[in-house]
C-alpha cells in the first residue's frame, strides 16, 4: 500500500516539474510536493545553470538546494587541484617556454647568389602607424640592429588615438636617428638600398584584395628616381624633393602624379647647373689673385657686383656700353637669354655642359659665338 502511494506521489511530482517547465506540452499539473527521486539526471543537471534555476525558485526545496550546493563545492575543489596536476604533466613544456629552447632542425641553408632578404620587426610597423619612419632606418645594417636589439632599443609612448584610453609604444625616432643617420644623410647608393627595403616593407602592409595599390605608389615613387640617367650626379639636387614628396604622401595619402615628378626633377637640373656655374666662378676666381668681372671686364669684383643694376655700365677701355647683365642670379643677354657662365669662364676646355638649349654659349663681353669671355679675344685682360 505504502509503496503504491510513493509511486503515485513520484509520478505527480514529475508531472509538476514538467508542467512548470513547459505548460504547452505538459498541460496537467502534478503533485504540490517533489523529491530528488522525481527528477531524472538531465533535469538535475539543468539546475547547475543559474538562469534555469532562477526560473524554478518556487520548486527548489531544501533537499534539492543542498544537492546543488554539494555539486558546486566538488567542482571548485576539482579546479583547485587541476593546476598542480597539470604542472606535473607539463613540466617539460614549462621548461621549454621559460628557456625559449631552440629547434636546430628549423635552420635554413645559405644559398650562394641569393640576395639578403630584409625582415621587419613588429615595432617598425607600430611606429609607421604613428610617425613616418626615416629612410636610413631601412639600410640593411640598421634593419639588422632593429631585429637583433629589438628588446633593448629606446622607445617612447604616443598620445592615445581618438576613442582610445592608452597610447602606443613605438621606437624613439629622435634617439635612434643619432645612431642610424638622419634624413638626407645617405649617399646615392645608400639611398637606393634603403629605398628597395622600404618598398618591401610597405608591400607587407598591403591590405588583401587591394591589388597592392599601397606599395605600388612606393614602387612608382622610387623607380622614377632610379630610372633617371643623371640620378647620381644630380642626387644632391633632387634628394630633398624626394623626401618632401614622400612625407607629403604619408600625411595626405595622395596618388602618384608623374608630371609633378618631372617638373621637380627639371628644376633640380637647373639648380645643379646654376650651382656648378657659381662653383666654377668661385673656383676660377680663387685661382687668381683677384676676380675678373664677366660683364665689365674689370679686375677686383665679379658679375654679382652688377646684380639688377639700373645704371648704365660702360667698359673703361673704350667707353662702350657693356653687352650683358646679371639679373636673378643669371648672366643674361640683352634679349634675356641665359648665358652659360661655365663656358665663359673656361670655354670648350671645361666639362661638357648638360643644359642643352636652355643656356647659350655667347661671349658675355660682345655676344660672339666664336669665343668665350675669358679667352680675352674681344677685350684686353686687365692688368694687376
Automatic annotation (TrEMBL):
Domain of life assignment: Eukaryota
Region (Disordered) residue spans: 1-32
Biased composition, class Basic and acidic residues, residue ranges: 1-14
Protein name: Uncharacterized protein
Organism of origin: Laccaria amethystina LaAM-08-1
Lineage start: Eukaryota, Fungi, Dikarya, Basidiomycota, Agaricomycotina
